[in-house]
Amino acid sequence: MKAILEVAKAGSAVRAAGEQVAESRRGKSPDFRLSFESAKSLLADLTPARLDLMATLRRVGPCSVYALAKAAERNYSNVHTIARLEVLGLVERTEEGTVSVRTSL
User: Which CATH architecture group holds 46-101?
Assistant: First the structure.
């Protein structure tokens, strides 16, 4: 499986979802696809700071947001931007509150 980040026209997500369902039915593991309406929206969501957080999280493994802030040497309140990465499906949070990079990426 691979992660595909793309800038695509509105409505293309429906086509891509259909392709993923077809791949799944053929027994293939569908790629993780994240589409943005514009380069501006992609860059607004995937900022260098958020990408650094993901890299730190991948390095340290599942942990609390507080532990992530310490590992990244960043202010705890600034690390809460990781919530946007959760919404995008790039980061997962357990019931216990630990966060991790999505395992299927």
Answer: Orthogonal Bundle (1.10)
